[in-house]
Amino acid sequence: MTEIDAKTDALVPDWLYLPDIAELLDIEVTRVRQLVKEGQLIAVRRGENRALQVPAAFIQDGKVVKGLSGTLTLLRDDGFTDEEMLEWLFTPDPSLPGTPAQALAENRGTEVKRRAQALAV
Q1: Which end of the chain is more exposed for a tag (fewer CB within 10 A), N or C?
Q2: What is the mean pLDDT of the chain?
Q3: How many Å apart are CA 64 and CA 21, to the nearest integer?
Q4: Whole-number Å distance between alpha carbons of 118 and 56
Q5: Each residue's pLDDT tens digit, 75-84
Q6: How far apart are CA 90 and CA 110, in angstroms?
Q7: What is this structure's pTM?
């Protein structure tokens, strides 16, 4: 496990394998892979078998959390790597309060996007 993996692992409480996400979203695994490829989800290789996994917080009520893909696009446009995006999304922000990932799950995407846009300045 690399240092980034350990840091990301410490921040993200729960992970899901791609087949689990496919089941939760009621879509094919190939479609989940497409969502990752399109940048609507972030998947990282974890564990002994280095299987792709996605933070469980990105899936809620059978859907990808509202505002996630737009936030990921903003961060990617700011030059963030997947690991840096995960770190940002799961690091507590006292001004939110909570983490940006929690704020997205609570339908506070506007606040999260505002902070993501401010990072580009």
Answers
A1: C
A2: 92
A3: 9
A4: 26
A5: 999 999 999 9
A6: 17
A7: 0.91
